[in-house]
Amino acid sequence: MASEIKQGTLELVNHLPILQVITPMLIAPILVVLNNKTLSWLLSFVGTLACLFISILLVQAVSDGSVLTYYLGGWIPPIGIEYRIDAANAILLFLISIISAIVLIFSYSSLYAEIPEEKHTLFYSCFLLCLTGLLGVVATADIFNVFVFLEISSLSTYVLVAQGAFLDRRALSASFNYLIMGTIGATFFVIGIGYIYMATGSLNMIDIAERVSQLGDNRTIQAGFAFIVVGMGLKLAMVPLHVWLPNAYTFAPTVVTCFLAATATKVALYVLIRFVFSVFNYEDNFVNELFFLLLMPLAVIAMIAASVIAIFKQNLKKLLAYSSLAQIGYMLLGLSLMSQKGLASSLVHMVNHGFTKAALFMSLGAFMLNTKNVYIKSLRGLGKSMPFTSGAFVIGGLSLIGVPGTAGFISKWLLLEAALETGYWLVAVLIIASSLFAVIYIWKIIEVLYFSDSSESYSEVGALILMPIWILALFCIFLGINTSLTVDVANMATEILFK
Amino acid sequence: MDSNFSFIYGHLPYWLFIILMLSGLFIVVSRGNLIKKIVGLNIFQTSVFMFYISIGKMKGGTAPILLDKSADDSAVIYSNPLPHVLILTAIVVGIATTALGLALIIKIREEYDTVEEDDIQKMDQKDLKKYNRNNVLETNS
Fold first, then answer.
1. Coil, strand or helix: which one is B111?
2. Closest CA to A320 of A407, A234, A397, A389
3. How many domains does chain B divide into?
4. Which of A287, A472, B82, B133 has the fewest CB atoms within 10 Å distance of its CB?
5. How far apart are the C-alpha atoms of B79 and A258, rounded to whole Å?
């Protein structure tokens, strides 16, 4: 395994890990000072483009299996904080940055319909802080730093969700519930970190991994692990801990829903993956049993139950939120198979589902700009009057179902393969069953879009709204045909994680 | 009996941490008043602060300050400062969460004129029925 560590010189590539995180963080306060909504949109867009550029450079740098490290302030770990980029987090950094850039294009004109104008500057500032947090969680190799960034992103997420109150006051209680649950999750996570620190005396992931393997069967470590699983379970909306998610996604502004659905839960899942493989010993019996006896059944329940609930939802945002829960089930299932293939499918599905769900939520947002409504009845006949938006929605829907030629097919195929490889036939059958439920709820929407007459006719939305939707839709197709970005990098990542 | 007592007494900070943590969590779950929920959340978080501080403490340890360069410091027992510093960060996070939670409560109070979860849910249910009948959404303005 080629894992050379580049460190210490002044070349720009060595500073990319920190630049990735610090760019949006530095822009956020500037926006508040400037206090101009167009300028702040422009600056945040430029910032996210910079992030995207950096993340592409990072993916290129680590795609050969090497690891980039950055020591904050030059302090050598385990004393100092270390940022560590390998294939597993580079691909997530890419996902987060590209989604944020695309979402910002969409927000330029859609935000006027959803948030009062005087709040736009603060909204973008908050958005950038949320982005900082998510990028930081993924980039860092220090477990306490994970908590700090997680809370930066969560706190700004609560604010962003609450902005939906301009259209619907239920956003406030949704945000409040999210705050309570999210904080409980984060606090559980901190307790877990405390237990790990008690047992190992270190906060650096690599350092802890060495000490954990020396300690062997240690009750403190196991308790810490359990706390971390529950804490992250709350953040990633693992099924019995998911109650905050449907309301938060439904009542948040479209921009926020797109961004959260595509990134936030994935980042929490990434933290769980990172802890299982890079901090704890994944071969440990306790970890394996926990995943087999607890997480796998929960993931399967999520897949089936959330899909069934989604079928009966009339509010389309809520429908897609429940479908998100089911998709999180797929990702958790891939992880809980505890095999290289399973983990790879989980990583690929994170990226593919990120693009798919963002495309779906965004085209739904475009419908909503016209109909002022997200109930299924109001989409009647929109396939004719809004052909481009509907087309993108259909592509996203097909990708969600997993039709061959779309991104969703690749990851579901990988997951099926992984399940069959480990011999879980029943699980494989349930994956297909859950996809069939997805066919039902997506078809329900397509039927209303194309096969029913509308009483009112609307005009197609503007080009600035169509562009980001179609970028996402084309990504759904592109990632279904060209898998070098996702599958190859994910395989590289699993090799590093399973080392 | 004696060894049991010393086990309990020897882990006193941890027992207190657990009691505090569970009472905080219980308040969050059981109370319908949003402000009480925030108070419970605060107690819950504070218990974790206590936990961190107690794992850094050494019996008879002093503050971790370099005393005299010429003297032999290796015999000096001092408390581990790192958990204390970590928890400073967590306290800041806790304050930010509380502030945001209270700000949300103010907004909720303005919109619903109540801070009781049950009442809010009832009003939401009423809204929901209205929306379904008229099929206009989700605006209260």
1. helix
2. A397
3. 1
4. B133
5. 47
Cα dihedral A459, A315, A472, A397 sign: negative
Between chains, do A180 and B140 touch, taking CB under 8 Å as contact?
no
pLDDT in tens, B79-99: 888 898 999 999 999 999 999
Q: Are strands A67-71 and A82-85 parallel, antiparallel or unpaired?
A: antiparallel
Q: Provide the ipTM.
A: 0.90
Confirm whether B100 is domain-assigned.
yes
> Hey, is A422 helix, strand or coil?
coil
Tokens representing residue A323 in the block:
């479908």
Which tokens is A466 given?
A: 């169509």
CB A341 within 8 A of CB A493: no
Amino acid residing at A124: Y
For B101-118, write each residue's pLDDT tens digit: 999 999 999 999 999 999
* B51–A191 C-beta distance less than 8 A: yes
Whether B120 maps to a domain, the answer reads no
Rounded to whole angstroms, the Cα distance separating A439 from A219 reads 45
- Closest-CA residue of B relative to A179 is B101
Q: What do you get for the CA distance between the two ends of chain A, in Å?
A: 8
CA dist A244 and A249 (Å) reads 9
**Residue B125 within any structural domain of the chain:** no
Under an 8 A CB cutoff, do B104 and A175 touch? Answer: yes
In a domain, B30, yes or no: yes
Spans of all domains in chain A: 286-499
Which residues lie closer than 8 Å to A156 by C-beta, 6 or more apart? Answer: A126, A127, A129, A130, A133
The answer to whether the pTM exceeds 0.95 is no
CATH of the domain at B104: 1.10.287.3510
Two structure tokens written together for B112: 């619903």
